[in-house]
Every structure is written in C-alpha cells, then in structure tokens.
Amino acid sequence: MVSSDQRRRQLAREKFERQQQRRAENRRRARRRNAVIASALAVVLAAGATAFATGALGGDDKDDTVTDAAASTPSKAPDPCEKPAPGSVKKLSYKKEPALTVDKSASYTMKLDTTCGDITLALDAAKAPRTVNSFNFLAGKGYFDHTKCHRLTTSGIYVLQCGDPTAQGSGTPGYKLPDENLKDPKLKGGVYPAGTVAMANAGPGTGGSQFFLVYQDSKLPPNYSPFGTIKGGKDVLKKIADAGEATGAGDGAPNATVVIDKATVTK
Questions:
Q1: What pairs with residue 199 in β-bridges?
Q2: Which residue, 70, 83, 114, 204, shows the most beta carbons closer than 10 Å to its own?
C-alpha cells in the first residue's frame, strides 16, 4: 500500500513533470512563433515586402507563456485616430528615378498630415540626396496622399511603416533607389535609435517609396538608408503604438487607422 507521504511525493513529482513539459512546449511554441515572426519581419522593411533581422524577439519561460497567450487572444484597442479625409490614392508609376534637383546644402522638411495627428520629419539632403530628392518629387506629385501606414511592429523592433500606395507591402514608385548613408555614426551597435527615418528595401539598392519611422530604439543591421529624423509628432507615434497591432504577435497592421491625408516637402 502506498503511504500518504509517498502519494504526496508522487503527486509533487507528477506536477513538476507537467510543469517541465509545459515549459518545454512553451519554448517550442516560442521558437516556432519567432521563426514565423522572423519570416514575416523579413518582409516588414522591404519596398514591396520589408526585410530586417529579429534577434531581439526571444524571452524566458515566463515571457514565452505571456507572449503565447497574447498571440492567441490578441486584444484590439480602440482606434485613437480620426476618419481619413475625402480622396483616393493616386496610381502613379515612373520608369526611372527623377533627376537630382535638391539642394544638398539646404534643409528640407516633410510634413505628414495624418488621421492620427501631424508628424514632421527633417530630411538630410546632404547625406541622402537621392532619397530626399525622390521624396521631394513623389510628395509633389501627391503620391503619398491618402495612403495608409500598413505595418506596425511592437516586439524587439519598434517601427511604423508607411509609403505604400497599395497598403499591402508591395507598392513601389516604379524605380529603385541606391542605398545611402549606411555608415551614419548614429547607427551604433546595430541599433536604429528612436526618431530615425529610414528606407525600407528588399535588399541592397532596392529602395522605393516605403519608409519606416522608429519610435523606440530598434536592433537592426545597418542596411536601411537613414535619411531623416522625426522632429515633431512623437506623441502621435506613441498613440499609434499604444493602440497596438492586429495580430497580437508584434507585427501586423496597426489597430489605429493611420492614413496620410497629405504629405508635403518644403525647403
């Protein structure tokens, strides 16, 4: 006959084994999930399907359990933004990059009038002249007007991605831009600091119209042309980030309806 002490020890051992099994399963699920996120994030920062590294997405057993629960039951926060202005996206495409007309010695500002508030970007024409020239050209044509910021990442990498007229991650202006300013001293230790404005791409020399706004320091390889800084609207980005993204996994469409009603570049 099994004594009460033996029974208690047996039950404790079985409980411990169940906990170990759950933790092992949590780790397996986390690895599978991070592999899926890694493949998804491999297209997040691409001009058509964005690409970047996701090494900061891991966690311990406790974090894995919490993340699994969040991923399985994503909660959608209320939309903090207004309805988009009347109008539709222009279907524009160009066979070649516009002629370089920007003044490399001048200061350029890009203003994004969005449904969530105004965001102001200081563009660096001296270090990224062809990128700034392209944005000046496209904004002047109304290319960005009424476009939706289609991607928000909230785990390990913290960016809002915009500039795609299709809102699907596949839009381009028809031409490709070279990489610029990849050795910017601000990109230290594989980190794009909060406030950076950089180009999305699908590999070297494939920049188009998609760009991302870094709202929190993010671990990324220096493969994405930094061409400006966020000068106004950081509170707007915080509001968008706080509303979360649709999948609950840290990478998806923003819950906030972020539409660029109007984009303008001024000298």
A1: 211
A2: 114
- What CATH architecture does domain 1-267 belong to? Beta Barrel (2.40)
Domain boundaries, the chain: 1-267
Rounded Cα distance between 112 and 147, Å, is 11
Q: pTM of the entire structure?
A: 0.74
What does the H/E/C string look like for the chain?
A: CCCHHHHHHHHHHHHHHHHHHHHHHHHHHHHHHHHHHHHHHCCCCCCCCCCCCCHHHCCCHHHHHHHHHHHHCCCCCCCCCCCCCCCCCCCCCCCCCCCCCCCCCCCEEEEEEECCEEEEEEECCCCCHHHHHHHHHHHHCCCCCCEECCEEECECECEEEECCCCCCCCCCCCCCECCCCCCCCCCCCCEECCCEEEECCCCCCCECCCEEEECCCEECCCCCCEEEEEEECHHHHHHHHHCCECCCCCEECECCCCEEEEEEEEC
Q: Lowest mean pLDDT: which of 51-55, 56-60, 197-201?
A: 56-60
Q: At what angle do helices 61-72 and 4-41 cross, to 10 degrees?
A: 60
Strand partners, 259: 148
Distance CA 198, CA 41 (A): 16
The backbone torsions φ and ψ at residue 58, rounded to the nearest 5 degrees and listed phi first, read: -80, 180
pLDDT at 42: 44
